Amino acid sequence: MTPTPSDPVASPEKKRRPSPRPSPWVWPLALALALAAYHVWDFAFHPGGTGLRVALVSREETKAALARDPRAIVLDVRLHGDPSPFPRTVRVPRMQLQERLRELDRYRRARVFVLGASDSQGIEAAALLARRSFTRVACVRSPVTARAQRKGASPLRRALTSKDGLISLSENAKAP
């Protein structure tokens, strides 16, 4: 008997092969690809990595904001130091900030200006507050010392990695 073109059993080129069984790695690889795509998307919309923006403000801007807004406070997180140059200052050392956050709950919706011994300490504390739903947080910029001016210090414009993650900093960010 000669095979006819309509007979699938007789024609070797039309035989259907059984579909290969998917590899056990298909689902884990698909999940890894989906997670990578999510992180790329997240980074595109939150360039700082976390979506947190911490504004750096000068001492003069802080004093003006405190004069305008009666609910605004300065959170002094310096371990040791001089008395705060600002009115309405709440002093909580940086090392105790995590444990004493409940004391600051009434300021969640108010402007909070964080004053640290250095910019990095203030930014770290400001990031902690921002992650704990404080909506209007800014960091008071440390004054530039005479030594830094002699070395030609440029304005702070960088990204800082803290314990809580990467924070996007900008001197041009609008103060809360």
Give the biggest sheet: 7 strands, mixed
The computed structural class is alpha/beta
Q: Using the CA coordinates, give the radius of gyration.
A: 29 Å
Low-pLDDT parts are: 153-167, 170-176
| CATH hierarchy: architecture of the domain at 53-170 | 3-Layer(aba) Sandwich
Descriptive account of the structure:
The chain is of the alpha/beta class. The protein has a domain of 118 residues: Oxidized Rhodanese, domain 1. The chain has a seven-stranded mixed sheet. The longest helix is centred in the first third of the chain and has 20 residues.
Write a compact overview of the structure shown.
This protein has 176 residues and is of the alpha/beta class.
Give the SSE map:
Layout: H1 26-45, E1 53-57, H2 59-68, E2 73-76, E3 89-91, E4 111-115, H3 119-131, E5 136-140, H4 146-150, E6 160-162, E7 165-170
Parallel strand pairs: 1-5, 1-7, 2-3, 2-4, 4-5
Antiparallel strand pairs: 6-7
Which tags fit this structure?
alpha/beta, 176 residues, Oxidized Rhodanese, domain 1, 7 strands, disordered C terminus, single chain, 4 helices, seven-stranded mixed beta sheet
